[in-house]
Amino acid sequence: MVVNAHGALILLKHEIDDGEMLVLTHPETQEEQECRVVYLGEPADRQRVGIEFLTPAPRFWGLDLEETPPASDPN
């Protein structure tokens, strides 16, 4: 649903516990990323699950998600 350099909000069919540790594997690159469940939505056919990478991985999703510092206010 939503991805960033620090994790994602994904939909899962299987039950999972808050705080559970997971290893995600990118299907195209086979890169693995350790993560922790930090949010559980309401149980349904598919549950929204927020995951947080243990270490930031801006290239894991195959997108350029490098964080840029905010522009400084000249005033």
Brief descriptors of the model:
75 residues; mainly beta; single chain; globular; 0% helix; five-stranded antiparallel beta sheet
Spatial sequence of strands, sheet with the most strands: 1-2-5-4-3
Biggest sheet architecture: 5 strands, antiparallel
Which structural class best describes the helix and strand composition? mainly beta
Could you say which overall geometry the principal axes of the C-alpha atoms support? globular
Task: Report low-confidence residues grouped into runs of 5 or more.
Answer: none
Distance between the termini: 38 Å
Q: Percentage of helical residues?
A: under 10%
Number of distinct beta strands: 5
Output mean pLDDT: 86
Strand fraction:
35-45%
What's this, in brief?
The protein is an all-beta fold and 75 residues long. It has strands spanning 2-4, 7-12, 21-25, 32-40, 47-53.
Commentary on this structure:
Helices cover 0% and strands 40% of the residues. It has a five-stranded antiparallel sheet with strand order 1-2-5-4-3, with no helix packed on it. The protein starts with a strand and ends in a 22-residue tail after the last strand. It has no helices and five strands. The protein is an all-beta fold and 75 residues long. A hairpin with a 6-residue loop joins strand 3 and strand 4. The model has no long low-confidence stretch (mean pLDDT 86).
